[in-house]
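Tip: read the tokens left to right.
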């Protein structure tokens, strides 16, 4: 069955349908990973977006039970050059077509994803629709121009209620703005006793759990659309060690008086080089974000830039000059992607140890 992808700039690309038969609208973005499509599809940070996978063959190793980053994917649609019909892998359970069909997510294959990526790189992210070829493109384009995309993505993907992930080590509160399972997995691998809480949890409620540290997770959308989280982070500063990832990094910056802005087409993929300004070390990172911290806004804050992106010089790491708090724009838990920066979780544990030692000295 034929299906068309229509962008608000007037671009119309016709391909073949797979996955769900429903029609959809969302922000069209691209990600450059060669593998890890299952983790990408289930990453809550893609909430509300139609995701283009630039690698030409997707689904060749199927979908398995182990590589999920969330239970229910939040993407609006999937765009690929070719979707494998007969996956082959010892872990394979179902095909990508069957998975998307079960989850109610439409896909389109057989289009020129290289051309689409070049359009997005040139004009920036665009609103788009995956729909039947029976739809009039001009009418769809007009509707796209009028549509306001939702701004409650964090609310959609955050847990509704707190829940524990027990361990016998450091007590950590993980604030879920759309957290990937990989973050929780890394904390559990280090025997942390984790309590996951919703995005709107107050600082007072978090501190009542007596944590040794607070993790600010990744998540979708504009950080300025979550003012309650900004206030929460501001109220936690200096009271407990903080470690922020991706959206958590941006919320931390806003809480400290810095500013954020929307990138032209974002950073999405598993091969972004990041340089540590103190050591000069370069690591390759997994990234998925459409916003960044404004460098000029850092000058009049208590923040220090620790890492930069070597592709475009944007800020990739921050730390507070007075308090035990640091953040990164990328994903040290990877999934998918390189694990070069996985040691940041160990740094978080080290800071919690130092903080507890300091508290005992002043007790």
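Filled-in amino acids:
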């Amino acid at each position: 069955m034929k299906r068309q992808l229509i962008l608000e700039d007037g671009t119309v690309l016709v391909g073949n349908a797979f996955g769900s038969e429903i029609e959809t609208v969302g922000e069209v973005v691209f990600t450059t990973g060669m593998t890890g499509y299952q983790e990408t599809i289930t990453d809550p940070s893609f909430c509300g977006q139609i995701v283009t996978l630039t690698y030409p063959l997707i689904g060749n190793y199927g979908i398995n039970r182990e590589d999920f980053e969330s239970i229910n994917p939040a993407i609006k649609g999937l765009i690929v050059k070719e979707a494998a019909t007969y996956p082959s892998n010892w872990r394979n359970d179902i095909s990508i077509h069957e998975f998307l069909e079960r989850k109610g997510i439409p896909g389109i294959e057989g289009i020129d994803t290289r051309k689409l990526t070049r359009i997005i790189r040139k004009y920036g992210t665009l609103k788009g629709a995956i729909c039947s070829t029976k739809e009039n493109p001009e009418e769809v384009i007009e509707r796209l121009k009028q549509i306001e995309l939702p701004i409650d993505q964090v609310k959609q993907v955050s847990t509704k209620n707190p829940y524990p992930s027990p361990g016998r080590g450091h007590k950590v509160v993980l604030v879920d703005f759309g957290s990937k399972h990989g973050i929780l997995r890394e904390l559990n691998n280090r025997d942390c006793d984790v309590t996951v809480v919703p995005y709107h949890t107050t600082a007072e409620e978090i501190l009542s759990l007596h944590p040794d540290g607070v993790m600010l997770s990744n998540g979708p959308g504009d950080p300025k659309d979550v003012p309650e989280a900004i206030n929460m982070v501001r109220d936690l500063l200096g009271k407990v060690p903080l470690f922020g990832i991706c959206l958590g990094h941006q919320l931390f910056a806003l809480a400290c008086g810095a500013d954020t802005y929307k990138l032209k087409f974002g950073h999405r993929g598993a091969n972004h080089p990041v340089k540590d300004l103190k050591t000069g070390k370069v690591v390759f990172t997994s990234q998925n974000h459409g916003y960044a911290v404004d460098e000029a806004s850092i000058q009049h804050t208590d923040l220090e830039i620790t890492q930069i992106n070597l592709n475009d010089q944007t800020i990739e790491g921050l730390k507070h000059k007075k308090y035990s708090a640091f953040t990164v724009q990328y994903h040290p838990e990877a999934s998918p992607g390189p694990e070069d920066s996985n040691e940041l979780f160990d740094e978080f544990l080290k800071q919690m140890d130092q903080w507890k030692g300091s508290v005992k000295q002043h007790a």
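The chain has ten helices and 19 strands. The longest helix spans residues 344-362.
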